[in-house]
Amino acid sequence: MYELNRLRTLYGEKPVLDIASLNVEEGEILGLVGSNGSGKSTLLRHLAFLEAAQSGTLRYRGFDAHTIPLHVKREIGILLPEPYLLKRTVRENLLFGLKIRGTLEEAQSRMNEALELVGLLPKKFLHRAWHELSSGETQRVALASRLVLRPQMLLLDEPTNSLDYSGVPQFTDAILHANREWGTTIVIASHDLLWLSEIATRKVGLHFGRLMDFSTTNLIVGKWRESGDERFFDFDETQSMSLPKSYRIGEKRGVAINPRDISIAIEPFTCKDDTVCLKGVIRDVLHVTKTNEISLKIIIGNHVLECVESFKYFERYHFYPSQNVYVSFAKSAIKVPSKEA
Amino acid sequence: MNFIVSGLKEAFGLLIHLDPETISAIEVTLKSSSLSIIFSIVIGLPLGFCLGFFHFPGRKFLKLLSDTLLAIPTVVVGLIVYAFISNRGPFGSYELLYTLSGIVIGQTLLALPIIISLSATAVEGMEKKLYLTLASFGLTPLQMIQSVVWELRHALIAVGVAAYGRVIAEVGIAMMIGGNIKWFTRTITTAISLETNKGEFAMGIALGLVLISIAFLLNFILFFLKKRARIIV
């Protein structure tokens, strides 16, 4: 659906987005992972043709920003972070896009369907005014007003931001419904890695505007101290990892470690020179049903590392939150992102 | 002190018994200010929208100009219009001086910068989120303009109400262009000015009360509109 090539955007002198190459395939659910300011929102606004990049190419179905016809552009729907509703009733908000497109047949049934998908009762909410909604309801109506259009491409920017725990599964179902029933291709930007792991068919990391070449990632950001021929990163007073001085590590850019490169055990590892061994406490254990893997979040000092293990491995050791564990990874698994992409 | 108290008493008498002279001044005022507001909105709102929405060379200068004209003294507008429509002026042959039409022209010119400047500010200050949300629906340029105007409706009505408040309370134009002719071009403000000079406080007070009530009503509307629009005009 999308082809991106050497896409670059600067705010002033500072590059906020610098993507060498990225394709979005029809029918996939692509997760964009990254912290605040990593360029996720900028990328989504480019994809929605709301903002143009300074250089490079961005094509949707072969069209770029100058050649894309309006009817093709209207296939794309975007849900912005902190969604904004038009100062009208819920019904008018849902009708707006349909009116613009002049497709008012089945409007009523489509509006009911969209509201039900996001978990709002049409009877109760259709005639509410915009100011009579809570922030969670606003977010749901905002998604419904995109779903009602049955977009071919749906871009979601932090869609679960204002939702409570009960709202998230509902959103997941609504997004999956669009993907499966209408063939909608979906790009989701979120910092909720666990949620993205559940829903996305593919994930890419964004870090300081650059793509990471692995699907999930532990980003470790902070100060490295120099000592001898090495640089040290301290997890706490007693635990640290080190890299040769030749690595150029940006303090803000940090380093990345693929969760699949991290081993976990309940007994201490015999640590070699080329590996890092740490001790931590499990915070979360999550079963990723799609891949039948277990994602574990481990607190080490002031940092959290995610590590992924097979379900079989989990069945053998039965990890549980608050358990003391040992983790280890090869030094070669420590990636310096500025060298990626 | 007595003349104030008796003036107040008489004033209520005039209002309750619908004194024809008092009512005539109120009618002339409402007619002239309403017409001039309609004209200035018809002309000024599209201009203000363009000034606030589109980016073109010279835009900042035009905005500055309209902001400056916000504070133009009514007597200066009166002077300019007088110069153009008096017998010796270029439009003298239309015989607009000392007519209601003349007042409407002057007051339209007075309200125009207010409408242009404040509506431009409202459009300019439109939340980026609103713009992006509208843009994300893939609107044609015309649909975009319609939608922006509709979304900003509370703010734009507030602009009209604010301009109405300025026009209805002005005295310079009505006096210079209208000439304060009884039954024809005497407005609330010119009548107050004349009656006070004559020492006739009752009618002055009565009309003053009417003007204050209208001002109160306008501000009451503004208060609610601002709350709705959540912007400061």
Main attributes of the structure:
heterodimer, A: about 350 residues, alpha+beta, Rossmann fold, 2 domains, five-stranded antiparallel sheet, 20 strands, globular, B: about 230 residues, mainly alpha, MetI-like fold, 11 helices, about 0% strand
Overall description:
- The complex is a heterodimer of chains A (341) and B (233).
- By secondary structure, chain A is of the alpha+beta class.
- Chain A has two domains: 2-212, P-loop containing nucleotide triphosphate hydrolases (Rossmann fold, 3-Layer(aba) Sandwich), CATH 3.40.50; 218-339, Beta Barrel (OB fold (Dihydrolipoamide Acetyltransferase, E2P)).
- In chain A, 24% of the residues lie in helices and 35% in strands.
- Chain A contains nine helices and 20 strands.
- Chain B is mainly α and 233 residues long.
- Chain B has a single domain (2-229), classed as MetI-like fold, CATH 1.10.3720.10.
- Helices cover 77% and strands 0% of the residues of chain B.
- Chain B is built from eleven helices and no strands.
- In chain B, helix 2 packs parallel to helix 5 (100-124) and helix 4 crosses helix 5.
- The longest helix of chain B has 34 residues, at 20-53.
> Major sheet of chain A: size, sense and barrel closure?
6 strands, mixed
- Overall SS class of chain B: mainly alpha
CATH superfamily of the largest domain in chain A: P-loop containing nucleotide triphosphate hydrolases
Examine the secondary-structure arrangement and name the CATH architecture of the largest domain in chain A: 3-Layer(aba) Sandwich
What top-tier CATH class of chain B fits best?
Mainly Alpha
The CATH topology label of chain B is: MetI-like fold
Total individual domains of chain A:
2
The total beta strand count of chain A reads 20
Neighbour order of strands in the largest sheet of chain A: 5-6-7-3-8-9
User: How many strand units of chain B?
Assistant: 0
Query: What is the N-to-C succession of helices and strands of chain A?
Result: EEEHEHEHHHHEHEHEEEEEEEEEEEHEE
**Inertia-based shape of chain A:** globular
Number of helices of chain A: 9
* CATH structural architecture of chain B: Orthogonal Bundle
Oligomer: heterodimer
Q: What's the helix count of chain B?
A: 11
Rg over C-alpha atoms of chain B, rounded to the nearest angstrom: 20 Å
